[in-house]
Batch of 4 targets.
Target 1
Amino acid sequence: MRSSSVSDIYKKFTQQSLVLHRFRNGRNFSTQSEHPKPYKSIPGLNSLPVIGTLHHFLPLVGEVGMKANMFEMFIVLHKKYGPIVKMEGLFSRADMVLLFEPEHFEQVYKAEEAHPWRPGFESLEYYRENLRRSTFDGVYGLTTAQGAKWREFRTKVNPAMLKPKLVKLYAPGLDEIAKEMVDRLTRLKDQGDYLKQYYDKEVTRWSLESVAFVGLGTRLGSLNDGLPEDHPSNILIKCSKDIMDLTFKLELLPRFLKFFTKSTFMKLMDVLDLQWEISTRYINEVRKSINERENEMLEEDKSIIEKLLAIDEKVAVMMANEMLLAGIDTVAFTTTNLLYHLSINPNVQDKLREEIRSGETSRYLKACLKEALRMWHVIPGNLRRASKEHIVGGYVIPRGVDVIAPNEYLSRLEKYYPQPNKFIPERWLVDKTDPLYHGRAHPMVTLPFGFGVRSCIGRRIAELEIEILFKRLINELKVSWEGPPLKVVSKLMNSFAKPFYFKFEKAE
Ligand code: HEM
């Protein structure tokens, strides 16, 4: 697929990144105030040439110090600087402003709803919009596109992705996958320390199998024993991991730490080619079987892929790739998060098992999932880049600055949720008169799936996959935790540090 030389391609990519800095000089006021304080007077972390803000994060001498995750970093920044904190050019990105008051980021996010701009994945954007422009032919995806390009794609795929008959279409297949996963865990639990080291691999295999069933219309067989290294399932898992790791290196590490950036960049381009080729192969198979079908199918019974194929084959492949990009680690993380909280709260687990066995409702299960998502967000803070100037809390925030809502941190503050560090699913079920009632928190505090028209398009698929798995898992297995507390580490998004001390037993 590659025609230009490596140097040409890389040079064009780096030139494009400079556009952002030119854009910053423009002015376009959204809000007026008589005497707002200038942007430069916002307290926070200043930047030094070359190293950016890295010095603030050095152990012992840095103002913030080494932190394992964003949550811990937000605690320090909030305490030290107050409700509005500026971070200049952190990790060689645009300036960021952290807003710790929900009313403040609500003001900005709502004002940006017409064209919500969520930066990130700059190299993937370059891949789609420049390097492989002829392949994508005006189809840019959701995670990377902005403005009119994003809106056009989202408008096309929304009806297919948000189909009301999702459960009827996918629940039986997802339940088969859940059954395989629970059978697998039942076998693996007796194989010494295997799960301690490789539980994360297993949950990722389940998550890939589930999302590929929806997005590629196929059963990959990820949960089978003895898969060879070149099995599509292993390749797709590696692709997804490589995309995250390489993107992290390219976009978030301080400039001087981006060793061998050019080779990292070209490696990423190769991985993206490979993922696109695999998705195209599976989508073609679905198209073939639709063409060979003899009977007309009711519109409401058509799968997501069939609906996407009716728009355009490229749209179907692009959306499949988006699902593979955004729907594997996110679901695996949330599943581990919920499993962990159930394992350290045996009373909640028993109550959930009772509900599942009664077969009457999923109310408690849904509340458990909401509570797990409150405790640990996959993405610790939401993000919008200001497309115009805002005046917030008496300060000017210029266009081009990234406005961060530290939702995970806020979701653990006593002022929004009583006993915030306790896993209490009941807070999502009790009524207004109860002090635990979740509605006492500002509605913008807990946003695990993001905000507004640009929020997660896979939310209902994710919830369906997780609920179906837990119905089987908690019915059949009792899970406990035999080790020190599970730790979160933050890279592009949150993940968990090994090892995993889950203990699975047959449930009575
Ligand atoms: C529990 C699991 C998941 C969580 C917590 C999650 C969370 C999020 C968040 C926070 C965003 C950013 C929203 C914003 O900027 O307002 C997002 C976007 C997105 N998610 Fe998810 N997600 C999950 C699962 C999935 C799945 C299973 C898929 C695909 C099937 C998916 C596909 C996407 C896509 C394509 C976007 C970009 C949407 C856009 O920009 O229009 N996600 N997700």
Note: Residues 377 and 448 are 6 Å apart (CA to CA).
Target 2
Amino acid sequence: MKKYYLAVTYDVCEHNDLFIDMNEYPIDLPTEMEAQVKDFAKQDVAPLVRVYESETSDFKNITLHREFTFKEYECCCESDSM
Ligand SMILES: [Zn+2]
């Protein structure tokens, strides 16, 4: 069965209890999922990208497929003295 994938980028800051979904991107090439997710993360400077899957193209019923984290885009709060 064909599956549809949707990537969602998140802006996350644990220090400020920030967890905001930024943008949604359909993944048109599931075989290139990792490369596409990397591009989305770079574009939005997102430390977290979740990929949801759906069996229908309307994404009415989605389940979490994979989660990608990008250390290089994490916020810099850690370096502050708090
Ligand atoms: Zn932070």
Note: The beta strands are 4-13, 18-27, 48-54, 63-69.
Target 3
Amino acid sequence: MPLSTRWWAGRNKKESGRAPLFHELREEIPRFRKQGELPARDSGSFSKYFCDLCNSPVTIQELRQCSICGRWGCPDCWTPEYYICNSCHGILKMHLLRSRDEPETGPGGSE
Ligand SMILES: [Zn+2]
Ligand SMILES: [Zn+2]
């Protein structure tokens, strides 16, 4: 099982939407919470939970769990277009840019 899969590999063959890229993001981004795991609760309030990104206390109805990293995001930290948090969206955008600029370069090691 190669860990350094070329996440853009499918891009040139066929543009089958965003699913392949999401798959690669899931492998790259560490899981912050399990799917279905609740966010941290605000002990000073009965019905508020903390946004995992900005730490604002918001109601559970306002929080959405990121489908990639599992973090809970308030409306300010959320990218509804992809149903992911802004943090993952930033990484997704980086990937999209990279795939456009350097289609032939390997992933390499950025650490
Ligand atoms: Zn937030
Ligand atoms: Zn996320």
Note: The first strand starts at residue 48 and ends at 50.
Target 4
Amino acid sequence: MCIRVRPTTEPPTTPPPGAGCGSAVLCSDFEDQTGPAPSGAWRFTAPDCQGTGTAAVDTAVAHSGSRSLRVDGRAGYCNHAFVAATADLSSVGPVMYVRMWVRHTTALPAAHVTFVSLPDASQNGRSLRVGGQNGALQWNRESDDATLPAQSPAGVALSRPLPTGSWQCLRFAIDTGAPKLDTWLGDERVPGLHADGVPTQDIDQQWLVRTTPPRPTALRLGWESYGSGDDTLWFDDVAVSLSLIHISEPTRHSLRSYAVFCLKKKNKVDYEVRECPAAPGSKHYCC
Ligand SMILES: [Ca+2]
């Protein structure tokens, strides 16, 4: 029986593991990687052709812990370099939610580039891509080269650049039952990266010409350039889930709250320390 509750801020037990993504289908902070070559749940791949681009586990820069995935992307079509999750994602739905932390060094170029590539069964294996064009983030569909948003000045203005030199949280919601997409950069749902099924000029009018929804089967992180554009990128705390994943920063234990529960059992009193569930909108709610 709970007699009293006393809040404390000290985490008394081993912190929860990994990328803070609960029951996610795929959840990786890359801390289990033992060498520079991706292993276990990840493997290097160069889907079309391989040149000077590289992708490897990095121990110098990390969002969580001491490891991340580093991609040295090079301009030119035949410098593809990706690390692919080995997980089969073909049954994740009806909405597939993806979260990743990404950091890069060079502003997105005017030319088209890709840094997330999802093989798509609805395109016979061609990719649903996330990258940039005209200096801002965009979605691209390989089979018909459609973009979201449209690459008009008004459309590009409704997207956002990917800031350089700091970790950014990118989240996607990919509807596999309707031609809908959503994208968050940090806390903002980016208006130009939002396909809602109703064609809107400069945003998703071109995208929705194709009504077959995507069916991603896998996740690849890396770099693919179709002209100009070198960049160095890091990825960390990557998750794929059936629900929107919070922008959790799993190693910041100070955001967790704990309470001491006083348990009275017959003639003795036991103390049990538990992590408190967070209330909506509060980082420090204690039970
Ligand atoms: Ca990490």
Note: The chain is about 0% helix and 40% strand.
